[in-house]
Amino acid sequence: MESVGPAGWYEHIELSPDASRAAVDRRDVRSGRSDIYRLDLRDTNPSRFTLQPARLFQYARWSPDGQRLVFAGAGPSGLYVKPSTGAGNEELVHEATDGALVFPSDWSPDGKFVVFRKLLPGTLGALWTLSLDDHKSVALPQAENRGTNGRFSPNGRWLAFQSSETGRPEVYVQSFPPTAGKWLVSRDGGVRPRWRRDGKELYYITSTGTSPGGSLIAVAVMDGNTWRTGTQTRLFDIRSGTTAVNTYPYDVAPDGQRFLVITPPEEAEAPITIVLNWEAALRK
């Protein structure tokens, strides 16, 4: 286990497709303002990605080719895209209406869709998809009731997401494009699903561990045209201070053996630091 990058108030992390860079939400301790930073894992020096001081940008997700980032923005509220190099301005690709807030969840492997959470006033949110061809958005069936954190499988066939429709958050999977039905994945509650890059494992955080953040669970996914899972294995506890629904305190390298985790240092609750966690390689 080793630290990556300087200590800071980090709230969300996303590895690039080649795992050489990370996009992180980092909050200024003095002002409380959050911005997106890029972290090169080879030199570990973060650089600020969003540069407009009067606007708020959060929750970046990478395009499948690593060339762009989609993220939530305010002023106006919507989904924005910008080259991952940091060059150029933020492009508004979907403006929220009716007083809604929108938060990106994932970019489809073919680059054609962004799945996002839409939070209308007086509701608990739902998952929608945005077509990047015609910029039309539609609600996702099976995930229209408290759905969030949708994640496409690497082959684009499945969509994992969390929903609290039963009264507590659980992780589900449904086909994409959606057909009838969905499958419950988590046991005793689960949040923040992610896929291994080969699609053979699905991860989520459950609240059954001793850590305040919960335990990271790996679910074996069987090959085939129908949804089937195998063994569920607890990997390690995540002691994260991030609590916002749309944030992820962890990501997984393409080989599934290394995890980048936001964790508070031993001596204080804040700020938090990013830690590269090798414990998964030791799992039995």
Question: Reading side by side through the largest sheet, how are the strands ordered?
Answer: 1-24-23-22
Radius of gyration: 18 Å
Structural class: mainly beta
Q: What is the number of beta strands? A: 24
Stretches where pLDDT is under 50 for at least 5 consecutive residues are 267-284
The first-to-last residue Cα distance is 18 Å
CATH class: Mainly Beta
Would you tell me which CATH topology applies?
A: Neuraminidase
Q: Quick one: CATH superfamily? A: TolB, C-terminal domain
What would the principal axes of the Cα set say about the shape? globular
**Could you say how many structural domains there are in total?**
1
CATH architecture name: 6 Propeller
Total helix count?
0
Element string (H = helix, E = strand): EEEEEEEEEEEEEEEEEEEEEEEE
The fraction of residues in strands falls at over 45%
Percent helix range: under 10%
**Main sheet characteristics:** 4 strands, antiparallel
Mean pLDDT value: 86
What does this structure look like?
By secondary structure, the protein is mostly beta strands. The protein has one domain (2-282): 6 Propeller (Neuraminidase). Helices cover 0% and strands 46% of the residues. It contains no helices and 24 strands. The chain has strands at 2-3, 9-15, 21-27, 34-40, 46-48, 57-62, 68-73, 78-83, 91-95, 101-107, 113-119, 126-131, 137-139, 147-152, 158-163, 170-175, 183-184, 191-195, 201-206, 215-221, 229-237, 250-252, 259-263, 273-277. Strands 1-24-23-22 form a four-stranded antiparallel beta sheet, with no helix packed on it. A four-stranded antiparallel beta sheet has the order 2-3-4-5, with no helix packed on it. The two termini are 18 Å apart. The model is unreliable at 267-284 (pLDDT under 50).
